[in-house]
């Protein structure tokens, strides 16, 4: 109960019987309302904590597996067994090809961005490739990520991409729960946020950034603002394969323009046709 109600003294001696009953009923209603609110707030806090915990676990497990497949395995004193080597290769390949089995027309990450997907920190692929080229020139026996972060290359600082930039520009890879916050559906021919029901309006943002999208092999549409060096096409599906990817402009849910432009996936005209067919079949006016 609020302090104002706690400290308030109700003088009922001057009230009529009906007024007195109404007064106590009002107090009971206020107390009940506060109890319901507190109960709802507690459940909401617990639910949010559960979601955060799930996301953190996903990130921790993902980091541990990628770390083992790219760096930690080289620290062992005993030679790596062939079964372990193939296990690492399979795990790395699964990061790139996730979703391909569902549709042969799906696009995996462009080769130069594979390195971003298997990096435990998901540093921007363009930056990593600069250091990868340097690693190739030095012909070291150390694996690339081990060389870059632990071995002989940990002090290398290239003018083309400074170490500070390499560390700062890490691409956000969404977990299963986080991905839901970027999903859009079509309702009466308009693009609507699945969770909030808000119509997609890319013009509401004043930052000048582009809106990007991907369509998964399960025909789920994800869209959000591109943030260079932070959030790219590869973010939505954590490096997994897509049926379509590009940029779009929408106003109050109505699609104004769409283009198949993505440096990470390099979609073809066929991928664009797949996306436009998906929109048309779901009632979106493309004229």
Task: Compile the SSE list and pairings.
Layout: H1 3-7, H2 17-70, H3 82-97, H4 111-118, H5 125-138, H6 144-149, H7 163-168, H8 176-179, E1 183-187, E2 190-193, E3 211-215, E4 221-225, H9 233-236, E5 244-251, E6 254-259, H10 269-281
Antiparallel strand pairs: 1-2, 1-4, 3-4, 3-5, 5-6
Helix pairs in contact: 2-3, 4-5
Distance between the termini: 58 Å
Distinct helical segment count: 10
CA radius of gyration: 27 Å
Low-confidence stretches: 1-10, 45-52
Strand content: 5-15%
In which range does the helix fraction lie? 40-55%
Helix and strand pattern: HHHHHHHHEEEEHEEH
State the strand order across the main sheet: 2-1-4-3-5-6
Number of E strands: 6
Q: Please state the structural category.
A: alpha+beta
General shape:
globular
**Averaged pLDDT, please?**
77
Major beta sheet summary: 6 strands, antiparallel
Structure report:
The structure is a single chain. The chain is of the alpha+beta class. The protein contains ten helices and six strands, in the order ααααααααββββαββα. A six-stranded antiparallel beta sheet has the order 2-1-4-3-5-6. Helix 2 packs across helix 3 and helix 4 (111-118) crosses helix 5 (125-138). The protein is globular. Residues 1-10 and 45-52 have low confidence and may be disordered.
Question: What are the main properties of this structure?
Answer:
single chain; 287 residues; alpha+beta; six-stranded antiparallel sheet
């Amino acid at each position: 109960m609020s302090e104002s109600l706690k400290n308030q003294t109700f003088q009922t001696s001057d009230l009529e019987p009906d007024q007195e009953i109404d007064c106590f009923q009002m107090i009971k209603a206020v107390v009940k309302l506060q109890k319901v609110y507190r109960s709802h707030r507690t459940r909401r806090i617990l639910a949010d904590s559960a979601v955060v915990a799930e996301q953190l676990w996903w990130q921790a497990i993902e980091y541990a597996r990628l770390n083992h497949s790219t760096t930690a395995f080289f620290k062992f004193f005993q030679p790596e067994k062939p079964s372990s080597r193939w296990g690492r290769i399979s795990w790395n390949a699964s990061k790139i090809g996730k979703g391909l089995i569902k549709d042969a027309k799906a696009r995996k990450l462009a080769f130069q961005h594979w390195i971003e997907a298997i990096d435990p920190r998901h540093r921007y692929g363009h930056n990593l490739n600069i250091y990868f080229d340097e690693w190739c020139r030095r012909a070291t026996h150390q694996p690339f990520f081990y060389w870059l972060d632990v071995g002989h290359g940990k002090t290398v600082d290239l003018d083309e991409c400074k170490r500070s930039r390499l560390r700062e520009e890490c691409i956000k890879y969404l977990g299963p729960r986080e991905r839901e916050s970027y999903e859009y559906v079509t309702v009466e021919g308009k693009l609507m946020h699945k969770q909030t029901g808000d119509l997609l309006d890319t013009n509401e943002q004043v930052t000048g950034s582009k809106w990007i999208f991907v369509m998964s092999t399960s025909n789920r549409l994800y869209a959000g603002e591109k943030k260079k060096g932070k959030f790219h096409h590869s973010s939505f599906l954590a490096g997994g394969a897509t049926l379509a990817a590009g940029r779009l402009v929408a106003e109050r849910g109505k699609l104004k323009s769409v283009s198949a432009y993505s440096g990470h996936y390099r979609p073809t005209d066929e991928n664009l046709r797949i996306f436009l067919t998906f929109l048309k079949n779901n009632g979106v006016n493309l004229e």
